[in-house]
Input
Amino acid sequence: MPHFFRTLAVLLLASAAPMVAADDKDTNFIISPQVREGNPSKLMVFIPGGNVPNEDYNKTVIAVQEEVDDTVNMYVAMLGFSSRKCIKVCPTSGACFLLHNQVKDAVEMAREAGFDGSDEDIVIASHSLGGTCANYLVQGYPEEQMYQNGAIFYGSYVDEQGQFGLENYPAPFAMIGAELDGGLARPGKMANWLFDFNKVSADIGISKAVEKSAVLILPSIDHSNFCPGFQVPGDIFPSEVDEETATKEISQTTAAWLRFSLFKNPSKKDINLLKKMIAFTNDLLAPYFEALNYEVMNPAMHYLGEGGSYSPLCEDAQMILAGFDEDDSSRVRIGRDCDLEGFEDSRSCAYLNITDDFEHSRSQYELIEEEGVLNVNVSGHANYYRDFLNTGSFTCASEVGCKMLSGKRIASELGMEYDAPTSRGTCKDVNAHSIQVALDLLNGSRSLVRYSKYGKKICLGDDFDAILSAGPAWIKESLEIKELDECLSVKSVKIDTELDSRLFPGVHYCKLLSPARVIDWIMTDSLKEAVLRRE
Ligand SMILES: *[C@@H]1O[C@H](CO)[C@@H](O)[C@H](O)[C@H]1NC(C)=O
Ligand SMILES: *[C@@H]1O[C@H](CO)[C@@H](O)[C@H](O)[C@H]1NC(C)=O
Ligand SMILES: *[C@@H]1O[C@H](CO)[C@@H](O)[C@H](O)[C@H]1NC(C)=O
Ligand SMILES: *[C@@H]1O[C@H](CO)[C@@H](O)[C@H](O)[C@H]1NC(C)=O
Output
C-alpha cells in the first residue's frame, strides 16, 4: 500500500475505535513488595520508555523487589502516560512540571499503599526515553530531595558532558546498558560514559566511581529485555538469552548496585557481580577504544570536538597507497607536526579538526638528501555523525578524510622506479586494512565469534572520483556506507592525480572507513537480521 493510504487507514482505525484507544492509555500504578517486618521502606519511581506499555516493566521491577527483599521493602510507583511518551509532559529540564506533579501523585499513591519512608528513600529508575525525562527531572529540580538520592538508567544515560555529564552528575547513578542494544544506547554510544567512568576511576578509585556513577553493560541482553513482551524498534531482537535469564541478570545487577551504592550493605556476591560486570564492560569496549585511536591521536572521545594531533589511519593509508617494499618504506618519514602559521595555501597539520582548515591543507614533502629520506606531510580530518541533543548513536567517525601524496610522487622524489601513474594502492585497499585492524583488535572476542557466525558482512566497492576531481568537491562528498540485502557496501571517494596534472599534481586523497565504525557494525547493526536464539 502506498504510504499515504497506510497513514490514512491508521488514522481511520484510530478514530473508529476511541473506546479501545482509551483502554490502552497507561496510568500510574503501584506494585507493593512482600513487606518484611523491620526492613526499611524504599520507593522506586519508574519512568517507562517511549511507546512501551508500562505493564511491560512489571516483571523487571518485581524481580528487583524480590532481589532486595532481604534488605528493604521496595515499593514501585510505575508512571503511566496517556501518550506513552514522558517527553510530552517533560520536553526539557525547564518545562518538566507536569511530570514532576505526576511523580508527586505517584508518591502519594505509594504512601497510601504503605510506603512509609521519607523523600530520602526514593530512587528514580527509567528506561530508554524515560531516562531522558529522569535526567531532566534531576536537572530541573535541584532542590527536590527525591531526585537526588540515586537513579538507575536502563538503556539510557545522563548528559554527554558538562555539569550533568558523568563526572559532575549531582545524584549517584547506574547506567545499565545491553550488549545487544541496537539503538541509541548501543555499546559504541555507552563508550562515551565508560571513557569518563574510567577517568573518574583513575582519579578516585574504582569503588567510589561505581558508587557515584557506574556504567555497566550486561552480556547477551538487548534493549527490549528491560520491558519483556515489547519489541523496541531497531533493536537486535530477540536477544541471545531467554527472558528469564535476562530478567535475572538485570535485577541482580540492579540490586547489587542499590545495595552497594545506596543502601550501603552489599554482600560479597554483590561486589563480585559488580566487579564482573565492570570487567565485562571494559573488555567489550577495549577494542573499540583502540580502534578510535586510529581516527585521531591522542585518545579522547573526539566526536565531542576535542583536539587531537594526528591520524594513525592516514599514516597507514599513505604507505598502503605507495605500496613500497620494506626497504623503500623506510625512506619515507611521515610528520606529526602542525604548521598553522604562514599559509594561505600551504597550511599543513597532521590533523585538522575543522573542515575548512582541512580543505585548505596541502600534502607536502621535502627530500632530506643526506639521509636519502623523504619527509612527507599528510593531513587528516575525521567527520562525525550528527548528535543533536544527544540523539546520535555513533561515537565513531562517519569517515576519516586523508590528504596524501601519490605513490608515484614519493617514488619520483626518491628517484625510484614506479610502475603506476598515481599509486599502486587504492582507498579500497585502505578500507580493507581498516576491516583487518578491527578484526585483529577483536581477535578472540565474543563480538567477533557472534559476527562470524551471524553477522552481515562488509563488502568493499571500487573508489569513485569526486565530481570534477577538484578538492572542494572531494571535501563535500562522503565515504559511501550503504546497507544492502547481502552486505554493508562501503566505497571511498578519491582524487588521485598524475605528476603532470594541472591541479594538485601527484596527490592522492581518500575518504576512509574507520576501524571503529567497523567494530560498531560488528557489535550491533550487522546482527539485526540474524536469529541469535531459537525459541
Ligand atoms: C502490572 O502490575 C499492576 C499492579 O500490580 C497490575 O494492575 C497489572 O495487571 C500488571 N500487569 C501485568 C501485565 O502484569
Ligand atoms: C579543535 O581542537 C581544539 C583543541 O585542539 C579545540 O579547542 C577546538 O574546540 C576544536 N574545534 C572543533 C570544531 O572541534
Ligand atoms: C613534515 O614532516 C616532517 C617529517 O617527515 C616533520 O619533521 C615536519 O615537522 C612536518 N611538517 C609539518 C608542518 O608538519
Ligand atoms: C588470534 O588469537 C589467537 C589465540 O587466541 C592467536 O593464535 C592468533 O595468532 C591471533 N591472531 C591474530 C591475527 O592476532
Observations:
- Residues 1-22 have pLDDT under 50 and may be disordered.
- The radius of gyration is 27 Å.
